[in-house]
Amino acid sequence: LVIVFSMFPLSTLAATIGQHFQTPEAGWIRYDDKSPELEYAGNWSISSPHNNSHYGGDSSFVKNPNGDETLSFDFTGESLRIISYRTNSYGYSFIITIDGVSEHITIPAVSTPAFRRMIYEKTNLENTRHSVLIEAGPMNIDAIDINANGMLIHSDSPEAPVNFTALSDIEQVTLSWNESMDADNYIISRS
Fold first, then answer.
1. Cβ contact 17:119 at 8 Å
2. What is the Cα–Cα distance from 67 to 82, expressed in whole angstroms?
3. Cβ count near 179 (within 10 Å)
4. What is the pTM of this model?
5. Residue 57 DSSP one-character state
6. How do the pLDDT tens digits run along the chain, 191 residues long?
7. Strand locations in the chain, DSSP E?
């Protein structure tokens, strides 16, 4: 009997920048670049004509930035990926800020154009609501992947109530929660 222990992580199972993701991996949910939760500002363009190689048929891009191109959104969950079209025309440069912590990302042009490639990944976040701001230089957004226990949220959406409890007896169910500061009302439905 031989037992082998490794002090090194198994990188063959880890996702890598530039990796192709035709569809989201198991445990991830994909949102198209046109999802209403995404807020674009500045000089963004939509690729054309319709191309099925892009997720959803097209992608959003900045080729010649003027300095005010941003993308903002919120999400819940522990992990985030940005999926992109990689071009041979120019490299990508952007600043991504998650919950006030910024990273400057530079990605060189590729020799052959490539669709649905991961250009950014953030994992091991707390499973809570996160705010994202991307200050775009030249770049392309094809899709956003969020781990399956999370979801993309419009940044204007109020926080979800927390500490929700339901107590029942024979005649009624009593619901309670800590209210959200930004909510005007709550809709409760029964399934």
1. yes
2. 21
3. 12
4. 0.78
5. G
6. 555 554 444 434 468 989 999 999 999 999 999 999 999 999 999 987 788 899 999 999 998 899 999 999 999 999 999 999 998 888 899 999 999 999 999 999 999 999 999 999 999 999 999 999 999 999 999 999 999 999 999 888 776 666 678 888 888 888 887 776 667 777 777 66
7. 28-32, 39-41, 45-46, 60-62, 70-77, 80-86, 92-98, 101-107, 114-122, 128-136, 139-141, 143-147, 151-153, 162-168, 173-178
